[in-house]
Write a structure and sequence with these properties.
Number of domains: 1
Radius of gyration: 14 Å
Number of helices: 1
Shape: rod-shaped
Distance between the termini: 35 Å
Helix content: over 70%
Order of helices and strands: H
Length: about 35
């Protein structure tokens, strides 16, 4: 059960990081394109 929890937290963190990166990329894209990959 603990391992399942750890995997779930890891996947949630990964999704959250990708989501934040996409938001930052959209905000910065009009000024500095391809800065955040």
């Amino acid at each position: 059960m603990i391992l399942v929890l750890v995997e779930a937290v890891k996947s949630i963190k990964t999704v959250a990081e990708e989501w934040l990166k996409s938001i930052l990329a959209k905000r910065v894209s009009h000024r500095k394109p391809l800065t955040i990959l």
